[in-house]
Amino acid sequence: MVEQPLATVFGSVGVVYGLLVPIVLIMLFSFFLIASLVSSNANPSRVAQAIFCFVMMGIGILLMTVAALPTVTSVLAGTSYASATYVGLLIVFATGGCIFLWHDHWVHSLDSGSRLVPSLIFIYTVKVIGSLTGLLAGLSIVLTIILGGAEEGWWIMPVTLLLYGFVLYMSTRDEKAPVPPLFCGICKVPKFAKPRMPKVKPKLRVAAVAKKASKTKKRKGKSKKRK
User: Which of 72-86, 166-180, 202-216 has the weakest average pLDDT?
Assistant: First the structure.
């Protein structure tokens, strides 16, 4: 568990490598891709606004992640920070949430043609980050179990990152994504054959009902005569 999460993250090294480098890479990738894919329906000014909004939404996600991960790890480890640390983490999380919601509302006010490409870049960037985080965390857990020799509480950070990657991936999941045939065969629910009932024609059914009714009437008549 990190003893001073705020000092570690917001230090000079943490700010440069944790915030600025991903943001600069996403912005460069966005500008180059949009410059080659701008269509006649897209307004360059609105496209720039969309890029700005999605970059700020990414910053909001990073701030919420910075505040959430230490809190989750402390809960799983059964330890607690000082009350001032929790207040600071809460402020960071609330700031990130406000930034995300504000710019999400802003980007939805733009036309769909201007925000199409930036939204695709943003969604698939988050999807890649979530997939890699979950995959690496899962491999870390499996390899640690197989190789052994881990310290006590080794599972806390990998499990936290696995949950974080799963949340990121599911938040950007596409329901129309193709599934390989192998997984389709494994995940396919077996269908049991329904018992086939003999098909009876309507006329035969009516005749059978009439015969039963006549037989019951005859039986009743015979019983009355005997009496």
Answer: 202-216
- The closest of 40, 14, 33 to 122, measured between CA atoms, is 33
Nearest to 1 by CA among 164, 166, 165, 153: 153
By the 8 A CB rule, do 144 and 166 touch? no
Cβ atoms of 85 and 6 closer than 8 Å: yes
Residue pair 59/23 in contact by the 8 Å Cβ criterion? yes
Closest CA to 14 of 46, 61, 74, 62: 62
For 103-113, write each residue's pLDDT tens digit.
999 999 988 87
Name every residue whose Cβ is closer than 8 Å to that of residue 33 and which is 6 or more positions away in sequence.
Answer: 117, 121
Number of other residues whose CB lies within 10 A of the CB of residue 140: 18
Single-letter residue type at 109: S
Question: Under 8 Å CB-to-CB from 203, ≥6 apart: which residues?
Answer: none
